[in-house]
Design brief:
By secondary structure, this protein is mainly β. It is built from 1 helix and 8 strands; from the N terminus they run αββββββββ. Strands 1-2-7-5-4 form a 5-stranded antiparallel sheet, with no helix packed on it. Strands 6-3-8 form a 3-stranded antiparallel sheet, with no helix packed on it. The relative contact order is 0.23.
């Protein structure tokens, strides 16, 4: 009987020693991973040059150019301010500085564009701006019109506007 207890005691000690063997040491810490993505929207526009205007032609004179937006992956609106010589986006004027006279004109997006800017492309976000698409390269047509019937002196007329992205 003593012999069986002795064998049982060795077995229990052996099993206990195997179960309680120390595990390898280990430590851990959280790793935070972050990045900042910069907004790199770029806008460019070529000058809009109308064809020669005739005050007696009876038809409006038109012209167009393209607005280019590159590397813009954020939602944005494209706006055009009221320019230098009119009283706002619905009253744009080119000025002949020698004669001190003005020539009315309007700017709008093409019929392929956003309905908000079909009659007058302006700078009221969500009202008269064009909703832009996102992507590496987007092209938008800018149409201009000089209404017929303006009896103004001959000469060069000009205005300066600002095209901007609102995002």
């Amino acid at each position: 009987m003593h012999r069986r207890l002795f064998v049982l005691a060795i077995l229990v000690l052996t099993v206990t020693a195997v179960v309680e063997a120390p595990a390898s040491a280990q430590a851990s810490a959280p790793l935070a991973v972050t990045a900042v993505v910069l907004n790199t929207c770029v806008v460019a526009v070529a000058p809009l040059a109308f064809v020669d205007y005739s005050p007696i032609a009876g038809t409006p004179t038109t012209g167009f150019t393209e607005i280019t937006v590159t590397t813009c992956f954020d939602p944005h609106e494209i706006a055009i301010n009221g320019c230098d010589h009119g009283t706002g986006v619905s009253d744009r004027k080119m000025k002949n500085v020698l004669a001190n006279t003005t020539l009315d004109y309007k700017l709008d997006c093409s019929t392929e564009g956003d309905a908000k800017c079909l009659s007058n492309w302006g700078d009221s976000q969500g009202v008269s701006t064009l909703t832009g698409s996102t992507g590496p390269l987007q092209l938008y047509r800018l149409d201009g019109e000089i209404p017929e019937g303006q009896l103004v002196p001959s000469g060069a007329y000009a205005d300066n506007c600002v095209v901007s992205l609102q995002f």
